[in-house]
Amino acid sequence: MRKVVSIIALILITALAGNATAQQYPTHLIRMVHGFPPGGNVDVIARIMAQEMSTGLGQSIVVESKAGAVGSVAAEMVARADPDGYTVLLVPSAHAVTGAIYKSLKYRPLDDFDWISTVSFYPFVVCVRKDSKFHTLAELLAASTKAEAVSFGSSGLGTIQHMTAELLGNSAKVKFLQVHYRGEALAATGLLTGDIDFLISTPTVAVTHITSGEFRALGVTSRARWSQLPNVPTLDEAGVTGFEMTSWSGLATTAGTPMPIISRLNTEVRRAIDVPQVKSRLESLGGDVRAMSPEEMRALVASQLTLWSRVAREQNIQVE
Q1: 125-220 falls under which CATH superfamily?
Q2: Which of 18, 23, 91, 213 has its CA at a distance of 20 to 30 angstroms from the CA of residue 161?
Q3: pLDDT tens-digit profile of 269-314?
Q4: Which pTM value belongs to this model?
Q5: 64-88 as b/e, with b when 16 or more CB fall inside 10 Å?
Q6: pLDDT at position 3
Q7: What is the pLDDT of residues 172-188, one digit of tens each?
Q8: pLDDT at 8 over 80
Q9: How many CB atoms lie within 10 A of CB 236?
């Protein structure tokens, strides 16, 4: 009986200590990690959020780029961190792609994380060079059904741009030739120099080149037309019936983090994205700025793991 009482007392003391720690959170610097090169869409969003959230939380947030293996290096680092809310992951929708096609990950892409909130949603833009012979998506797809090899640039095997192109090919019953680059900026350069035929680009990169006249947009991947390119059709309008692929960004942390900390971070994300300057900067990147509850974000990740697992299976894509 004494032993049972001691165990119960220990559990209560531990729980109370955990609650006290959560109520004091945060008391020191927070690391916001992401898995992509500096200057890209993910890095920019991380820095916007870190700057504003540090104000609300009263602690500095340092952004760290841990690029490698399509974001899995950073994800593994966060999955293995202490579950105390001091290491968070700026996670893009590519996280679900990596979880679907990489078979030797050292973490579970859904269950090794506590999900905090989404930050923004944004479409991709299918772009060609200004002097491309393809003036419509239908022309590009028609060429792909012939012996002609229509090439696209990606940031590497298993990136969200790669898998979106595979989803497009799967939906249109065509195959594209993938050309790998070390990052989206270099892929954009490949399109500018004519080394590839088209690029599925984030708004961060696409709009600058479209505005300058260097790129021509053939379509956006969202369900509805995108406000920044109102004259560009959706892929559904362009002939790929029912096509939709909207990317997203959000925050996660290590599984097992006390719920009061998750709630505090969720509240802080919601506050930060409602700040007019923050919202306008995120929208300038093409984002539909929108928060979710932790439960809703977990369901989103789970559904996309299912989607990309199906695409990987049907397109025979697997990475060891």
Answers
A1: Periplasmic binding protein-like II (3.40.190.10)
A2: 213
A3: 999 999 999 999 999 887 899 999 999 999 999 999 999 999 999 8
A4: 0.83
A5: ebbbebbbbebbbbbbebeebbbbb
A6: 56
A7: 999 999 999 987 889 99
A8: no
A9: 18
Query: Phi-psi bin for 267: left (phi > 0), alpha (psi -120 to 50), beta?
Result: alpha
Cα(141)–Cα(5) distance, rounded to whole angstroms?
71
Residue whose tokens read 């505090």: 264
DSSP states of 200-241: EE-HHHHHHHHHHTSEEEEEE-SSS--TTSTTSPBTTTTT-T
Beta bridge partners of 64: 33
Report the pLDDT averaged over residues 59-64: 98
CATH superfamily of 2-122+247-314: Bordetella uptake gene, domain 1 (3.40.190.150)
Domain boundaries defined on the chain = 2-122+247-314, 125-220
**d(C-alpha 268, C-alpha 20), whole Å:** 19
